[in-house]
Amino acid sequence: MDRSGCTCIGVVGTAKNTGKTTTLSFLLVQATRRNIAVGVTSIGYDGEDIDTVTSLPKPRMSLEPGVLVTTAERCLPLATAGYEILSRTGVQTALGEILLLRVIREGLVVTAGPHKRSLIEPMCELLGRHGASLIFIDGALNRIAPMSAAEKIIFTTGAARNTDPSVLAEEMRAIEHILSIPLAEGMHAQVIRPSLFDAEDVADTVKLLSSSNRFLEMTQMISLAALSALAAHTSTVLPAMLILPDPMVLLLAGDPVQTTKMLGRLAARGCQIRYRRSPALGAITVNPFYPKLELFTYTSAFVDKIELLSAMRQAVSVPVYDVKEGGAEELFDRLV
Q: What is the pLDDT of residues 219-240, one digit of tens each?
């Protein structure tokens, strides 16, 4: 896809309140300081002032003049920024048509966008054609499928996901493993299926394999149940290679830790996993904040930030940052 030489970076929150908006805001500030032309697009909608579950205030993303942004038309009344409409895209969402804006006065623009990679890619291309050399895609783990449009991904995690740093570290280790699987360059599958959902699908597919016909490709999705059934299947002929469209398929299959365990079992039986395309894991940011429920009311609470950083850095090989503690500049330099 032609993006006019721009770079697309996805920012993915593992849960609400893990610091996605804060991370993205810090990166936008760094881009502005370096006079880099920036675009912002979004997967879905996550722009409320107050968290709908905890009733605690959420951090807002303020955009500087010159920033390009795509958002749905019904989000425009929520904007505090001044803007001009550069283009109507014709892409329709539940919140109306997606528009391309240029910010002309600093302030908030609530972003909302499509849920499909086939629609996110044209948003990035449009931003690139209008001059953005760096594009941020705002997303979340539960709607991560279109993130394969990015070249790099930053994951944000923290105590709002789980207050046990060791649990968070184990999950991010699994996510890093899933994103580190190589590409299926120049490899062609003899058996192609759109999806595998359950043990019955696995049994029917394994029948199509033979000793000389053992490359299986999924074009859409695979469930954790199907991975488990494949790893436990009694057939002596299993796929020598399972080719998936991208790592998002595995991240959406189920719990990442359980998914990596299934991948280990498949590897032990001689089945390699490969992707057709895959963004790189650029970095991880952590947030010690979490909403604590006491007497039917949520209050702000924090885990030990040093313990959280230490546990995460020991678990993964990519850099880990707390952007509120001075890591934003180094993070930006590493990505760009």
A: 999 999 999 999 999 888 889 9
How far is 240 from 252, CA to CA, in rounded Å? Answer: 23
- CATH class for the domain made up of 7-180+279-335: alpha beta
Q: Is 240 left (phi over 0), alpha (psi -120 to 50) or beta?
A: alpha
The span from the CA of 323 to the CA of 73, in Å, is: 31
What lies within 8 Å, CB to CB, of 46 at 6+ separation is: 16, 20, 21, 138, 140
Q: How confident is the model at residue 287 (pLDDT cuts 50, 70, 90)?
A: very high
pTM for the structure as a whole: 0.92
Residues in contact with 188: Cβ distance below 8 Å, sequence separation at least 6, in sequence order: 215
3-class secondary structure per residue, the chain: CCCCCCEEEEEEECCCCCCHHHHHHHHHHHHHHCCCCEEEEECEECCCCECCCCCCECCCCEECCCCEEEEEHHHHHHCCCEEEEEEEEEEEECCEEEEEEEEEECEECCCEECCCHHHHHHHHHHHHHCCCCEEEEEEEHHHCHHHHHCCEEEEEEECCCCCCHHHHHHHHHHHHHHHCCCECCCCCCCEEEEEECCHHHHHHHHCCCECCECEEEEEEEECHHHHHHHHHCCCCCCCCEEEECCCHHHHCCCCHHHHHHHHHHHHHCCCEEEECCCCEEEEEEEECEEEEEECCEEEEEECCHHHHHHHHHHHCCCCEECHHHCCHHHHHHHHC
For the stretch 311-321, pLDDT in tens is: 999 999 999 99
Token output for 191: 């058996």
Q: Given phi > 0 = left and psi -120 to 50 = alpha, else beta, which region is 299?
A: beta
Domain ranges of the chain: 7-180+279-335, 191-275
Alpha carbons 316 and 314: distance in angstroms, whole number:
6
